[in-house]
Amino acid sequence: MARPQQGPRLLLAIVGALVALSYQTKKKSFIHVQELPVSDPFVVTTLDFVSKEFNKKSEDKYNFRIVRVLKAVQVLTNHLEYRLNLEMQRTVCPKAERNNCTFQEGELYKKIDCFFSVFAVPWFEKYKILTKNCTDG
């Protein structure tokens, strides 16, 4: 049989556990992190989105194209996110063109290393860049 003094302690412990549990559900918790091959269809569509968005927002008068994907990681938390490490290079194509663009050489050569974090709902083709960080390569 419980002593009368243990009742309030038990009640306090239950309330404390419920507060801690409700706080934890508000925080993001990693469910699954997986490195993916570049050939994965969802990675391909995400890379295409990133490339188009980068060129659309870039102040450079030439398009950039992805040269190499260093790493593609899928992170599943309370949403789906792709984290991409890329090498991009300036092409000879101005902003209006996108097809058959070769890379700049000589004085206009420019290579950049970029990290993108992209919120994705790939089966509905919905994407949003959460983080973009590019530096000269």
UniProtKB/TrEMBL annotation:
Q: Does the keyword Methyltransferase apply?
A: no
Q: What name does UniProt use for this protein?
A: Cystatin-11
Per UniProt, which keywords does this protein have?
A: Disulfide bond, Glycoprotein, Protease inhibitor, Secreted, Signal, Thiol protease inhibitor
Instruction: Give a yes or no for keyword Transmembrane helix in this entry.
Output: no
Instruction: Write out the GO cellular component annotations.
Output: cytoplasm; extracellular region; nucleus; sperm flagellum; sperm head
Q: What does the UniProt entry say about where the protein is found?
A: Secreted
Specify where it is mainly localized: secreted
Name the family the entry cites.
Belongs to the cystatin family.
Give all residue intervals belonging to the Cystatin domain: 32-135
Which Pfam family is one of those matched by this entry? Cystatin
* Annotated PANTHER family: CYSTATIN-11
**Where in the sequence is the signal peptide annotated?**
1-22
* InterPro entries the record matches: CST11, Cystatin_dom, Cystatin_sf
Role description: Has antibacterial activity against the Gram-negative bacteria E.coli. May play a role in sperm maturation and fertilization.
Question: Could you provide one GO biological process annotation from this protein's UniProt record?
Answer: killing of cells of another organism
State a single Gene Ontology molecular function: cysteine-type endopeptidase inhibitor activity
